[in-house]
């Protein structure tokens, strides 16, 4: 296990270094001059030259890359061209909202996807199986932006016409509540401060965005769970467990599901990495102040340092989440031996 952890850590660092280098060249290849964006088209030649020198853009590309790598290693990702705020500081303030949304979406996906997959596998080739997999196919096929707008319209706008406030339309929490940021996760902060009403309000704001973002992972997890369970249920040890007189619940949960967890963990890790990478459309629809919305604004403003910082954050999150999933394989399946 120690050898595996060491190899995984080295690979993680190597991938992050490679991504940092690629993002540097990506930043250079994007059309547009950051100096012009910052100063405007009417800046004088002296102003342009002075700013280019202060930003290090007058140096050869390899010197710029070295400076960029050193600054990135220190956590300095530059400053936003719009408000001159450090990119790392902006990411730190926006990422907790994305984390809260992604975790909520993944909870929805796991809580419904795995049971639906198990039910479909246990009722294979029946009407229940066909209906479950049809819903999964529908969940994968529905565009996120359409589902988000429909949920807002049907569960927020329409009830408001009849004087009913069913679900909030946007934001993380109502303005009537004031929660002191501790972890910057609104629901957790409210619970830590004993403000149950604020925690419930934050949870209520999370419902529609989490359902919107979690629909596609839910459908994928359901299909993978069904496929894995069908393979496991045909195994000899399942027949042996049933022959011993074990209840169907014990056979399914303690024997079949545990041995089918490896592919499920894989897809959960991949989907969690993608969700934490930023849900641009969902955050834009629900005015959720996360990294996805930050990326949307950065692209609109051609804020290259901020775009680059977001790319690095997405990549780092994806790599770290998948490394954690690899470690969970041993707990799910003891037959896996790392370092061999």
Structure description:
It is a single chain. With 340 residues, this protein is an all-alpha fold. The protein has a single domain (87-332), classed as MetI-like fold (Orthogonal Bundle), CATH 1.10.3720.10. It has 15 helices and no strands. It has helices at residues 2-29, 34-39, 45-54, 61-73, 87-122, 127-141, 144-161, 186-192, 196-233, 236-243, 248-259, 261-276, 280-285, 291-300, 304-332. The chain is globular.
**How large a portion of the residues is in β-strands, by DSSP E?**
under 5%
CATH architecture: Orthogonal Bundle
N-to-C SSE string, H for helix and E for strand: HHHHHHHHHHHHHHH
Remind me, CATH topology? Answer: MetI-like fold
Integer count of domains: 1
Main β-sheet, in a few words? none
Task: Please describe the structure with a list of short key phrases separated by commas or semicolons.
MetI-like fold, 0% strand, mainly alpha, 340 residues, 15 helices
Blueprint (SSEs and pairs):
Blueprint: H1 2-29, H2 34-39, H3 45-54, H4 61-73, H5 87-122, H6 127-141, H7 144-161, H8 186-192, H9 196-233, H10 236-243, H11 248-259, H12 261-276, H13 280-285, H14 291-300, H15 304-332
Helix pairs in contact: 1-4, 1-15, 5-6, 5-9, 5-12, 6-9, 7-9, 8-9, 9-11, 9-12, 10-11, 12-15, 14-15
Write a compact overview of the structure shown.
By secondary structure, this protein is mainly alpha-helical. It has a single domain (87-332), classed as MetI-like fold (Orthogonal Bundle), CATH 1.10.3720.
């Amino acid at each position: 296990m120690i050898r595996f952890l060491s190899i995984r850590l080295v690979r993680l660092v190597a991938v992050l270094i490679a991504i940092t280098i690629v993002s540097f060249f990506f930043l250079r290849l994007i059309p547009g001059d950051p100096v012009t964006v910052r100063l405007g088209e009417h800046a004088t030649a002296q102003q342009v030259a002075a700013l280019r020198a202060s930003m290090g853009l007058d140096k050869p590309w390899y010197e710029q890359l070295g400076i960029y790598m050193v600054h990135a290693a220190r956590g300095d990702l530059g400053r936003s061209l719009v408000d001159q705020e450090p990119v790392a500081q902006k990411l730190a303030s926006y990422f907790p909202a994305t984390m809260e949304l992604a975790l909520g979406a993944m909870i929805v996906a796991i809580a419904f996807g795995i049971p639906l997959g198990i039910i479909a596998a246990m009722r294979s080739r029946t009407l229940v199986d066909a209906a479950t997999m049809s819903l999964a196919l529908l969940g994968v096929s529905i565009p996120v932006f359409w589902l988000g707008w429909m949920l807002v319209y049907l569960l927020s706008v329409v009830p408001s016409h009849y004087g009913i406030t069913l679900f909030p339309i946007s934001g993380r929490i109502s303005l009537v509540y004031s929660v002191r940021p501790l972890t910057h996760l609104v629901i957790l902060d409210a619970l830590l401060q004993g403000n149950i009403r604020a925690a419930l309000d934050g949870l209520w704001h999370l419902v529609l965005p989490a359902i919107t973002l979690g629909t596609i992972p839910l459908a994928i997890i359901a299909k993978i769970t069904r496929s894995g369970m069908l393979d496991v249920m045909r195994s000899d040890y399942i027949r042996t467990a049933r022959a011993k007189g074990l209840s169907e619940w014990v056979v399914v949960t303690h024997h079949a599901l545990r041995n089918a967890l490896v592919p499920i963990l894989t897809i959960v890790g991949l989907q969690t990495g993608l969700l934490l990478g930023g849900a641009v459309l969902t955050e834009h629809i629900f005015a959720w102040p996360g990294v996805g919305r930050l990326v949307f604004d950065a692209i609109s403003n051609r804020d290259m340092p901020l775009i680059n910082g977001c790319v690095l954050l997405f990549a780092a999150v994806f790599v770290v989440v998948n490394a954690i999933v690899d470690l969970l394989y041993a707990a799910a399946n003891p037959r896996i031996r790392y370092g061999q």
